[in-house]
Amino acid sequence: MSTPAADPIPRSVSWRRGRVRILDQRALPHRVLHVECTTADDVCDAIARLVVRGAPALAVAGAYGVALAAHRSRSPAAVDAAARRLAAARPTAVNLARGVEQALRAYRRGGAAGALACAEALAEDDVARNRAIGAHGAGVVADGARVLTHCNAGALACVGYGTALGVIRAAAEQGRRVHVWVGETRPVLQGARLTAWELGRLGIEATLVADTVPASLMARGEIDVVVVGADRIAANGDVANKIGTYALAVLARQHGVPFYVAAPTATIDLATPDGDAIVIEERDPAEVLTVAGVPVAPREARARNPAFDVTPARLVTGVVTEVGIARPPYRRSLPSHVRRAPAPPGVTVAAHP
Ligand code: MRU
Fold first, then answer.
1. Residues 168 and 315 in one domain
2. Quick check: CB of 154 below 6 Å from ligand 1?
3. Is residue 317 a contact partner of residue 259, using CB atoms and an 8 Å limit?
């Protein structure tokens, strides 16, 4: 399924005339710019610098990166090496390594054309799965609901439609009145720059708040449900997502607010037993010492910048996937979702590689 022409959110990543074309998310919301990658290392760089970000978008960018390497080099060893660099460009989202691996397998079977066909299929597949996530999850957003989301789990974080924002979007498309509280998401402000922009383009009512505000909103009864995305979901249901997610889950539990995670089954990593085993990316402290590139701390200040945190499974009300809503106990429900999900393009066994 392709992104409909009328979709107000531009596609995050695509293949155009032998290049990987990436919407530059660093420039949003003020400018809609694209970066043209001509080598796999350009794609690695774009991933590391957050030109493209969000777990499902990383999978597709990684797969296109393999296709680019395969088109540039006749050496399988060089393609393998490029794939290793791509998979390592960011460690937390399992989707990236999976997308790279799938394209590499397709390359081994069908050469450069096979890798590109795999990347294109993954891109189309992403949109279809996100629409299914939206259809399954829309029911958690009641008419008149005030929904809190964090970071950006919208079309920009995928190829199209979005996961957490897909759930909200589907509820709005079903005619429900929705108001979205958008956490700004320091340090690099994906909520303020990207989610607020997407919701504006979709015509969904939204209010931006500083990351420190949801506690008092919940205490006043002004948040009905929390819906966030995920970068990796361990076998026991622990969820790695953007830093700050864990705090919101604790607050939600304290205030009796349901806390949902929306993600494709490709984000479920049954090989990772629990959250302790998830590698949390540490990013450049400069992102904390600045706001939009402007220094805000004393020159001598030190900073720490973990990009993700882990929300324990016991705080998660449900995980919305393309199959339905997985409920606790997650050790039982998550493997069942993985088994029941359609196999990713080019993969004939039910379990994801
Ligand atoms: O550092 P980012 O912007 O890549 O982090 C993204 C997130 O944490 C998203 O919530 C997650 O990838 C889900 S995207 C559908």
1. yes
2. no
3. yes
How far apart are the C-alpha atoms of 91 and 210, rounded to whole Å? 27
Q: Which residues are catalytic?
A: 231
Instruction: Give the domain extent around 56.
Output: 13-133
Q: Is the CB of residue 126 below 6 angstroms from any atom belonging to ligand 1?
A: no
> Is the same domain home to 19 and 127?
yes
Q: Is the pLDDT assigned to residue 350 strictly greater than 80? A: no
Same domain, 207 and 70: no
Same domain, 169 and 307: yes
Q: What is the pLDDT of residue 229?
A: 99
CA of 74 to the centre of ligand 1 (A): 34
Give residues with Cβ within 8 angstroms of 310, minimum separation 6. 238, 239, 240, 246, 275, 276, 278, 280
3-state secondary structure of 315: helix
Confidence tier at 206 by pLDDT (50, 70, 90): very high
Whose alpha carbon is nearest atom 8 of ligand 1?
Answer: 242
Angle, CA of 307, 154 and 278, to the nearest 5°: 30
In this structure, what CATH number is given to the domain that contains residue 323? 3.40.50.10470
Q: Is any atom of ligand 1 closer than 6 Å to the C-beta of 307?
A: yes
Residue with tokens 């680019």: 68
Nearest CA to 42 among 17, 28, 61? 61
Decide whether any atom of ligand 1 lies within 6 Å of the 138 Cβ: no
How far apart are the CA of 224 and the centre of ligand 1, in A?
Answer: 22
The total of other beta-carbon atoms located within 10 Å of residue 32's CB is 11
Q: How far apart are CA 344 and CA 21, in angstroms?
A: 23
CA of 150 to the centre of ligand 1 (A): 9
Global pTM?
0.96
Atom of ligand 1 nearest to the CA of 150: 10
Over range 134-139, report the average pLDDT: 98
Which phi and psi angles does 46 have, rounded to 5°? -65, -40
Number of domains present in the structure of the chain = 2
